[in-house]
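> forwarded from #structure-qc
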């Protein structure tokens, strides 16, 4: 994805080294914009630091009395369908069926099932809303051409096996 230069709107190949947010096509455009960008740069650096610290903190375990996905209170008619043993995310039947709400907070797994052992799906997230991009070695059989030539340790679970080539790890490859 290319971003436009903040000054002249040409394709930007550089980013501000301070805030990592503002984009420029050249050092000249960056120098030209510095007086305007200086205050915003400092604010963005503060926000980046806050976001990094916030994302580094472990999430608290959600309450078990209601669905983490849709907040419906569990009852006899609407029971908890699944609970992640690692992060504590609990989900009702409706959220388990809805792939976006039925994804727990864990980075490399969903409800204790490793993403690396599942067929790639668009809704496999890393716990912070970003797509899982790690190694894959689904339990199903796939054509030999999708695997790397030599077995190695999976970067998610550590199992030594034949892994998908990088081109086949994303769900768009199918």
């Amino acid at each position: 994805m290319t971003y436009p230069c903040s000054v002249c709107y040409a394709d930007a190949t550089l980013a501000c080294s301070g805030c990592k947010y503002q984009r420029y096509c050249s050092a000249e455009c960056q120098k030209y914009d510095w007086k305007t960008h200086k205050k915003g740069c400092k604010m963005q650096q503060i926000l980046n630091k806050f976001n990094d610290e916030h994302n580094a903190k472990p999430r608290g375990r959600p309450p078990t009395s209601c669905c983490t996905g849709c907040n419906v209170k569990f009852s006899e008619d609407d029971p908890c369908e699944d609970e992640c043993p690692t992060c504590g995310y609990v989900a009702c039947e409706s959220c388990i069926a809805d792939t976006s709400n039925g994804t727990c907070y864990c980075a490399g797994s969903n409800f204790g099932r490793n993403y690396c052992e599942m067929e790639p799906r668009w809704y496999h997230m890393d716990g912070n809303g970003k797509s899982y991009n790690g190694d894959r070695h689904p339990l199903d059989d796939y054509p030999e051409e999708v695997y790397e030539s030599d077995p190695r340790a999976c970067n998610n679970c550590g199992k030594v096996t034949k892994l998908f080539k990088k081109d086949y790890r994303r769900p768009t490859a199918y």
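QC bot note: The chain has a mean pLDDT of 87. The chain is about 20% helix and 15% strand.
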